[in-house]
Amino acid sequence: MTRIDTTFASLKSQGRAGLVTFVMAGDPDHETSAAIIAALPGAGADVIELGMPFTDPMADGPAIQAAGLRALKAGATLRQTLELVRGFRNTNGTTPIVLMGYYNPIYVYGVEKFLVDAKDAGVDGLIVVDLPPEEDAELCLPALKAGLNFIRLATPTTDDKRLPAVLANTSGFVYYVSITGITGSAAPDTNKVAAAVARIKRHTQLPVAVGFGVRRAEQARDFGAAADAVVVGSALVDTVRAHLTADGAPGPETVPAVAALVTDLAAGVKAARSK
Amino acid sequence: MTIQQPNSFRTGPDEHGRFGNFGGRFVAETLMPLILDLEKAYTDARRDPAFQREMDGHLKTFVGRPSPLYFAERMTAHLGGAKIYFKREELNHTGAHKVNNVLGQIMLARRMGKKRIIAETGAGMHGVATATLCARFGLDCIVYMGAVDVARQEPNVFRMKMLGAEVRPVQSGTRTLKDAMNEALRDWVTNVADTFYCIGTVAGPHPYPMMVRDFQSIIGQETRVQMQEAEGRLPDSLVACIGGGSNAMGLFHPFLDDRQVEIYGVEAAGHGLTGLHAASIAGGRPGVLHGNRTYLLMNEDGQIQDAHSISAGLDYPGIGPEHAWLHDVGRVNFLSATDDEAVAALQLCSRLEGIIPALESAHALAQVEKIAPQKPKDHLMVVNISGRGDKDLASVAQYLAERA
Ligand SMILES: Cc1ncc(COP(=O)(O)O)c(C=O)c1O
Fold first, then answer.
1. Residue A186: which pLDDT band, with cuts at 50, 70 and 90?
2. A193/A211 Cα distance (integer angstroms)
3. Above 60 in pLDDT, residue B1?
4. pLDDT level of residue B3 (50, 70, 90 thresholds)
5. Do A117 and A82 contact (CB within 8 A), yes or no?
6. What's the rounded Cα separation, in Å, for the pair A200 and B261?
7. What is the pLDDT at residue B119?
8. What distance in angstroms lies between residue B49's CA and the mean position of ligand 1's atoms?
9. Which of B373, B380, B337 is nearest to B357 (CA)?
10. What angle do the packed helices B393-403 and B339-353 form, to 10 degrees?
């Protein structure tokens, strides 16, 4: 059992959906990012997705692109992302951390070395946007061997014929991307999401998290009624951006503002099954 | 590292879209079913004689093929070595080789019932070719172009608009070709049902590098026949510039197994290989971007670096995966030319031959100036004049004014 498995088992026994929060590692700088991550569990995050900054995030919208560029400008590297995880683990041994990003920085770091270092730092799972099942030999299979979860994205274009291939080497949970589009796009209506989650659940026992387009507590509540967890990303990195000074420096409100939104979203998710 | 030379250099890619360890399908799940569909549609079309026949007809009457193989007499005399021939892709309709590929992809889009075409463009030549064929066949056309390139290739922006295309300036990242490609991919992920992504070079996820190569191979196929007619034998060497590598691959591929033919690809060395440049083989390492593994310009952390070239069409931090493989197995020699050398070559060619080449093609000519004098007079050298220079006159004028 990884921390991810344990967390979803516990959510199940509590009878509620989980909140997965995405923030960009190193945004707006290393220290503030560490403080944001440290504040997430207390505010109600059940799983932390930590973005690995990349210059060319081809599946991300303007908000997450900008967050990655802020982090890179402040000197973020993959090595430092792992340091953030290591630092978090000094005080938190239970909240799962999933690294999310693109393959090139990992490939350049060296796959074997990355898996050893990530595991050692306390990473639990990986989501790598540009590695479909067709490229499983690159990272997915070695990651599973190293004891990390490899979480795959399923999308509206993943039809019933393709789903088994997508799910075959997936572990931890399945991330359902609720729209065809980039991060930060508008969310679809809840009925569509519920139907899609039901379809995926016909093919797998794994928990299903739903993301893309969730910004507010009511949406989190509605999606949480249909899925095992709700992912929020662009709204959080937008909140970081909105609480920076004119020259991009963090202020006293940066961390509390993110935490406040997470608290709000967590309340939404918790209300999902008690209607 | 020693790499075994294969029996044939022309069998790739394998079923995973790999050329050796390069290529592949590194795309988001949303796009994966689309590129599998595309691969299937292309495989069907390729086997269909009616598809080939229709394409041949358009190539002849709309594009104006075959393009001539021209003996560059005064340049040959001036350099005093190899006998130099120009493959005149700049005479194609729309002024560059790009149209060969676009025609193929647009016919495929029609076959697949896709009515909305998106493209990325750097110099604007691929955008113009796409806009042209969309006009010809009544399709919607949206072209993504880095804001920096919109400014330096203004005549092409106007041409695209004249042809009814929508040009979307891209403000993200470095605001050049790579960012235009990111933005086109973002569009495609969003508009999956009706949209066909027409990629302009031999890069991107499989099947694009193979498909674009096949559509461009007409350049080399014609060259074989034309050189036989002119000289009764094959050429001794081939030279072409490399942005993503489509004009080069089109010329090279039909000759890869004629091992006596020397092949030279010329990358853009910008301000020089120790400064800002766009030479991914000379200055890059293997990495993964835009759907394929290839040589990329990047830093220690795998972050993609800014490329620089005076020529917008070469200003890309990567290279097609088949070139990466041909480099590793030693079949193609990769050289480079700086901004200064390319501008000088453009001027020389204009004055000696009455042909103003594109700045991209001028990079190939800059290396011809170096290689040709070392060759005997019976050495037959073909250089691909991939496009004409009209679009570049403002950039060149500004460049010369700054140095005057
Ligand atoms: C005239 C011309 N030649 C060459 C290129 C470079 O592309 P490729 O390397 O794919 O031929 C371009 C690209 O815009 C171009 O316009």
1. confident
2. 10
3. no
4. low
5. yes
6. 55
7. 98
8. 29
9. B337
10. 110
Ligand 1: does its nearest atom lie under 6 Å from the Cβ of B384? no
Residue of B nearest to A152 (CA): B29
Rounded to an integer, what distance in angstroms lies between the CA atom of residue A24 and that of residue A36?
A: 10
B182 chain-A contacts, CB cut-off 8 A: 56-58
Mean pLDDT in residue range B44-48: 97
Which residues of chain A neighbour B28 with C-beta distances below 8 Å? 58-59, 129-130, 132, 153, 155
Q: Give CA torsion, residues B178, B181, B187, B192, to 10 deg.
A: -140
- Angle at which helix A190-201 crosses helix A217-226, to 10 degrees, equals 30
pLDDT beyond 70 at A42: yes
Q: What is the mean pLDDT of residues B216-245?
A: 98
Q: How far apart are CA B340 and CA B400, in angstroms?
A: 10
Q: Could you give the CA distance from residue A98 to residue A93 in angstroms, rounded to a whole number?
A: 14
Say what the pLDDT of residue B4 is: 67
**Residue B392 CB less than 6 A away from ligand 1:** no
pLDDT recorded at residue A188: 83
**What domains appear along chain A, each with residue ranges and CATH number?**
3-270 (3.20.20.70)
State the pLDDT at residue A176: 96
Is the distance from the beta carbon of residue B360 to the nearest atom of ligand 1 less than 6 Å?
yes
Residue to mutate, B241, B251, B322, ligand 1, most ligand atoms under 8 Å from C-beta:
B241
Of the pLDDT bands very low, low, confident and very high (cuts 50, 70, 90), residue A1 is confident
Asked if residue B125 has its Cβ within 6 Å of ligand 1, the reply is: yes
- Residue A212 has a pLDDT of 86
Tokens of B260: 């006596």
Contact (CB<8Å) A104/B298: yes
Chain A residue with Cα closest to B181: A58
Q: Check if B318 has its Cβ closer than 6 Å to any atom of ligand 1.
A: no
Least confident of A107-116, A266-275, B216-225: A266-275
Cα separation, A162 vs A157, in Å, equals 9
pTM score of the predicted model = 0.97
CA distance B303 to chain A (A): 6
Nearest to B310 by CA among B360, B262, B366: B360
CB A46 within 8 A of CB A19: yes
Q: What is the mean pLDDT of residues A248-274?
A: 94
Q: What is the pLDDT of residue A274?
A: 64
| B294 close to B285: Cβ distance less than 8 angstroms | no
Inter-CA distances, B86 with B65, B339, B368, Å: 15, 21, 11
Averaged pLDDT of chain B:
96
Q: Which pLDDT score, from 0 to 100, does residue B2 have?
A: 55
Helices (H), A124-253: 140-145, 163-168, 190-201, 217-226, 234-242
What angle, rounded to 10 degrees, do the helices at B125-137 and B98-111 form? 40
Ligand 1 midpoint to CA A114 (Å): 37
Angstrom distance (rounded) from CA A183 to CA A132: 18
User: A214: Cβ–Cβ under 8 A, 6 or more apart, which residues?
Assistant: A187, A220, A223, A230, A231, A232, A235, A265
Q: Are B293 and B285 in contact (CB under 8 A)?
A: no
ipTM: 0.96
Mutation to test the B interface, candidates A180, A185, A234, most B Cβ within 10 Å: A180
Ligand 1 atom closest to Cα of residue B248:
11
